[in-house]
Write a structure and sequence with these properties.
The protein is α+β, with helices and mostly antiparallel strands and 250 residues long. The chain is built from three helices and 13 strands; from the N terminus they run H-H-E-E-E-E-E-E-H-E-E-E-E-E-E-E. The chain has a 13-stranded antiparallel β-sheet, covered by helices on one side. A hairpin with a 2-residue loop joins strand 3 and strand 4.
Length: 250
Amino acid sequence: MTMKNIVLLVVFVLGIVFMQFAQAQSVDEIINKYIDARGGLEKLAAINSVYMEGSRQMMGNEVAVRVTMVQGKLYRNDFEFGGTSGYTIVTPKEGWSLIPMRSQTVEAIPEERLKAMQGQLDIAGPLVDYAGKGNKVELMGKDTVDGKEAYKIKLTLPTGKDITYFIDTKTSLLIQTKQMSAGMGGGRGTGSAAQEREVITNFSDYQLVDGILFPHTISNPGSGPMGGSTTFDKIELNKSIDESQYKPTK
C-alpha cells in the first residue's frame, strides 16, 4: 500500500469516527435541551411522586381518571365510568387490574406484560440519564409531526424493546412517541408478538407544575380501546401516597 493510500485510509477512518462522535454529541445535546426545557435535571430528579386527575375521551364516552406514580415503586391508574370503577396497579414485583367491563374479579397481570408496563415506574422517563439506566439512543434524523419539525430518536431498552421519540426542534419538548405494545394493560393474554400493534402517543398543552413542564393532554390516535385523549386538570408533585394504593381492593 502506497503512502498516499495509507493517508487516504486514515482520513477515511477518522472521518467515520468524527461522524459517529458528532452524532453522539447531537443526540446528547438534543436530550439535554429536552431536559432543560422540562425544568432541568435537578428538578426532575427531585420528583418522588406525581398525582394527576383528569378525563379521557374514549369511544365517544368520557371516563374520569386518576393517575398515581411513586418513583420506582408504583404506577396506578384509577378510572370511573357509568357508575363503575376500576384500576390498573403496577409495582416492581407484582401488578393487578380490575376492569368491570370485562370481569368483576381482580386479575394478576401476567409476568411478560408486567415487565413491559414497569417502565411507567420511572417518572422522569427513559431518556433522562439514559446511559445510567442501560438504555441506548440513536439519532434517526428529523421528521414532521402534525406540521412540526422534530428530531427522531430511537431508544433501545436493556430488554431490546425500542421506543421512538419525536422532540420538537423549536421548543425541545417531546411531542410524540411510537412503540409496539401488546395492547391494553389488563390481566389476560400473554402479550405475544402476534398480538402487538404500534401505539402512537401525542403530548401537548405543556404547563408548569412547581417549575416543571408537564403535558396536560396525552392522546392516542385511532379507534377502539387503544384510541382516545386524556386531559389532566390537576397535577400535584411529591404529595404523600397512602400505602393502600399499592394493593388491589374490590
